[in-house]
Amino acid sequence: MNNSGKIDPYGFREYDARWVYEKDIDDDGIVQLGKGLGTQIINHTKKNNPRIIVGQDYRSYSEHIKEKLKEGLVSTGCNIEDIGLSLSPMVYFAQFNLNSDAIAMVTASHNENGWTGVKMGIKKGLTHAPEEMKELKDITLNQKFINGKGNVKKIDDFQNVYKDDLITKNPLNKKIKAVVACGNGTAGIFAPEILRSIGCEVIELDCELDWTFPKYNPNPEDLEMLHAISSAVKENKADIGFGFDGDGDRVGVIDDKGNEIFSDKIGLLIARNLSKDYKKSKFIVDVKSTGLYSNDRKLNENKCETIYWKTGHSHIKRKVNTDNALAGFEKSGHFFFNKPLGYGYDDGINSAIQVCKLLDKNNKKMSEILDELPTTYQSPTMAPYCKDSEKYEVVENLVKEITNIKENKTKVDNQEIREILTVNGVRFSFDDGSWGLIRASSNKPSLVVVTESPTSEERKKKIFDFIDNLLQQTGKVGDYDQKI
Asked: With contact defined as beta carbons under 8 Å apart, do 193 and 207 qualify?
């Protein structure tokens, strides 16, 4: 048995796996990950030779890592169908289109260069949840591998099958001028062509593939990327701007005036638009999302229900699936459209298409549609450093502390905490609709902090100061990636 593989156990995250390549995982470690995943798939599907769709993003080392992963999968008896250079949603789509037993996508999404990872799924349209990740970690690290004999088959030209599926279902009635930014990530060879084909006039921004990410990471929550899109929208007098992440499952949106619209607000606009045709629908949103869903006039009129759930594409996807919701929206830009709008998984390009349909249906500019929502003052998603080994305990203690503050009716900026939601970290809200959130990041050694107030910029800041003060007192929290 080969014990030489290096795998940092912390790379097994809540719903995918991510490591710094060669520092935290080496080639043998990736082969073992493949053996672990293959064994897990065989155990779940009860098949000796399950069919696995495999793809990879454009990073310089992703193809090599994919080959090593395949080596491990094949050794357990898996039959691989390799669709080559892909977006994560293209791999998810392939599971439906080719009716495979499981998928594995080699990507570290928007993480900095040097990172690698795998997004995996067995049940169609769903990716691994924490239970499956725990099981995979156990099989892999303890080498409980099945031996078998699989094979590898290359599937040519699948990119066009994926593109055609989105294009044929979504023609637009009017020309929408869209800036399409891909941060030199893999979405560059998909998004411009698809949006052009449904009827958009596309202005490309950093759509050439360049795995060194010369400008900024392809991350629609990255302020640098958003500012670049904003400038291009204003310069070209565009109707809308879209920014796609590294593996194409997320999108960020900029309105016609060059203002960033946080994805949770985009989700609310899409939910409002859909609620007219799909009354009594359910929508799932993550705990980082705006409080406006709770008492939205239009959603209430159409008898729609919104459920706040755990942050993370895998969690929201599952909740959309188990609750049979029409759609799910995550503040980080993952949107999920269930039948008849999609297959339930997150696809940044399909999300952009839904925004185009919103514009197509309303005879208004994006900024005017947005103005129909009540104003709220939202912070960006802020991530202060906290060790992987300590972050969950830090959050657990903060849950207790904030619960005490509520029970003792201690005021924060002259208001008592009215409600606490602990489905994922702690989200505490006040009578005026303001709220704050502290949770552990699922894919980095950091915490996640968000605040929002419908009252004022200052109140949003006061809630952040309250959170920051609690964090500093722990002595276990370092610098923020960005701060208000």
From this structure: no
